[in-house]
Amino acid sequence: KMELFLHGQSVGQKVFKTASFLKPFQEAQQVCAQAGGQLPSPRNAAENEALQQLVEFENKGAAFLSMTDSQTEGRFTYPGGEPLVYSNWNPGEPNNSGGNEHCVEMYTNGKWNDRPCGEKRLVICEF
Ligand code: GN1
Ligand code: CA
Ligand code: CA
Q1: pLDDT tens digits for range 24-78
Q2: 69-107 burial by CB neighbour count: b if 16+ within 10 A, else e?
Q3: Ligand 1: which atom is nearest the Cα of residue 115?
Q4: Which residue among 69, 95, 121 is best mutated to probe the pocket of ligand 1, counting the most ligand atoms within 8 A of its Cβ?
Q5: Cα 112 from Cα 94, distance rounded (Å)
Q6: pTM of the shown model
Q7: Which of 97, 101, 113 to mutate to test the pocket of ligand 1 (most atoms within 8 A of CB)?
Q8: Are 99 and 65 in contact, with CB atoms under 8 Å apart?
Q9: Which end of the chain, N or C, is surrounded by fewer C-beta atoms within 10 Å?
């Protein structure tokens, strides 16, 4: 798919834009909210692919997704609390390694891993 803008990807009605910097999850959430968006919630393979292209292009490592299992361990939900309609976990994930992985990162290859929320990851927002 053609890259129309350097720092954005549009897919369906959704646009992903990268902030190009790294933040812990809570600050990343605030950055997106302040901009009128939210952290990315890829809900199908096309959205996941569009986001993956942006993560890969940025070349700053993995990016945070919106979803957490902070409410109930092992049950990942969107910011509104709904359960996932789509996932692209790396094999063996989510594993809640160390008992403290309640956020989700997308690797540059598009696969997901649960990860501690306090770690700094690339900030991309969806609008
Ligand atoms: C890392 O370090 P280890 O193997 O316990 C990672 C996990 C991954 C795992 C994949 C903090 O865990 O999220 O699931 O590798 N956690 C950290 O093998 O690096
Ligand atoms: Ca967890
Ligand atoms: Ca993990």
Answers
A1: 999 999 999 999 999 999 999 999 999 999 999 999 999 999 999 999 999 999 9
A2: beeeeeebbbeeeeebeeebebeebbeeeeeebbbbbbb
A3: 13
A4: 95
A5: 8
A6: 0.95
A7: 97
A8: no
A9: N
Complex prediction ipTM:
0.92
* Total length of the chain: 127
**Rounded-to-integer distance, Cα 70 and Cα 74, Å:** 9
Residue 88, ligand 1, Cβ within 6 A: no
Q: Which amino acid is at 30?
A: Q
